[in-house]
Fold this protein.
Amino acid sequence: MIDTERRPRWRAVNGILLLDKPIGLSSNQALQKVRRAFQAAKAGHTGTLDVAASGLLPICFGAATKVCSFLLDADKRYRAEIRFGQTTTTGDREGDVIATAPAVPSTAEEVEAALRGFHGEIQQTPPMYSALKHRGQPLYKLARQGIEIERAARTVQIHHLELLHYTAGLAVIDVSCSKGTYIRTLAVALGEVLGCGAHLAGLHRLATGPFNVTAAHPLSLFTTTNYELGDYDALLLAPDQALSGYSEVTIDAAGVQRVAHGQAIHVAAQVREPLVVRIYGPAKQFIGMGVLASDGTLTPKRLMGDK
């Protein structure tokens, strides 16, 4: 059994763990607790969830950290609670209330009408209370010092936006969006459209890329001494399961050798334009990611054997 009081002996662990992060911990704090339980030498998470947010946080161990960037770039899905009539310093419930409105939308139809303006491609300015960095400093640290930095607006995609419930100034929405979308910014903008102000009252991440929170494990599972390391290892997913949305190409043993040395090869597959693909060897072993050109040239991009 794992002795959680002693310093772990770090070991090589490879795979992806789907964690259901609870409210009250930062993503890094949750990561470190899980890493200690696994005694993993190398680990990284795939997209920050605020302390006040919960839900799916995929954690990559060892060689699986090489697919972290693909999950960071993946679409996300959230269930969000938006409180109308109150504007806060941070755009969420963690901040101080700086403005209140005497009236909030009286019907769900009013909220739904406002939501229609946020479907598809929209512009968002990242909030000051975010993990984005300015000259090496996270913006939220500067914000706490009363420093405001000019931020450029970004184009993001709202793929799906649905009002699930509305009552007494509190809306619950389901939103699927591209990477880089700030749900708190969406909440604030919705309050501005409705003229009453709003802030994000709660956030739960439901999905990241191909992964869903219904398959995630609670953090409490990794703070118990009733599990052996082998029990934890059995919960890990193969790295290529994070990449199921990409097409695959199978190459022969000679091709594997060349790709492993960073060399481009020619394959029979044809595409109309350059395409990022999964590369597999003849025994269906996952080699890594590559770019397939329209002429059949396959160039390795990120390989499992890379250091």
The chain is about 20% helix and 35% strand.
